[in-house]
């Protein structure tokens, strides 16, 4: 299994936009995503154009793409970035056929290395929905430590929910 993780290009951000807009209501609920909070695709594309035009140190988000045999299978994004200190990551396997086969763990490990290197981090956190077993297991297998389970709105796309906070530090 040849997994590659690299920075997402502006043109590839459409994968993230489509991933959320094409998802079923049931799948979005599992992710803790409120479909009414999704930006319209043109608005989201404008957001990415502005984001990618900024120096990395000023970006509100930083995106990575996950490839298996050069085919996109998922992505990770970092937000709530405090450059040189900490950030929060999100992880998604876009291809349902690739879920639960172990690629996610390897992709998360590579993503962690890139985030720490490019964003100069000391700590990286992730807060998946507490009832979504797959990302919680993936984070544990990738070396994250359990911090706590609490109620929050983890990102602008989400509704108020129980999340499990995971951390990895350097």
Radius of gyration: 15 Å
- Helix share bin: 25-40%
Number of strands: 7
CATH topology of the domain at 3-120: Aminopeptidase
Structural class: alpha+beta
Strands across the major sheet, in which order? Answer: 1-2-3-4-5-7-6
Low-confidence stretches: none
What is the average per-residue confidence, as pLDDT, rounded to a whole number? Answer: 95
CATH class of the domain at 3-120: Alpha Beta
CATH superfamily of the domain at 3-120: Gcn5-related N-acetyltransferase (GNAT)
Overall 3D form: globular
Helix and strand run: EHHHEEEHEHEE
Amino- and carboxy-terminal Cα gap: 28 Å
Q: How would a crystallographer describe the biggest sheet?
A: 7 strands, mixed
At CATH level 2, the architecture of the domain at 3-120 is 3-Layer(aba) Sandwich
Beta percentage is 25-35%
The number of helical runs is 5
What characteristics describe this protein?
about 170 residues, alpha+beta, Aminopeptidase, seven-stranded mixed sheet, 5 helices, 7 strands, about 30% strand
Would you spell out the secondary-structure blueprint of this structure?
Elements: E1 3-7, H1 13-21, H2 25-31, H3 41-53, E2 61-68, E3 71-82, E4 86-93, H4 103-119, E5 123-126, H5 133-141, E6 145-152, E7 161-169
Parallel strand pairs: 4-5
Antiparallel strand pairs: 1-2, 2-3, 3-4, 5-7, 6-7
Helix pairs in contact: 1-3
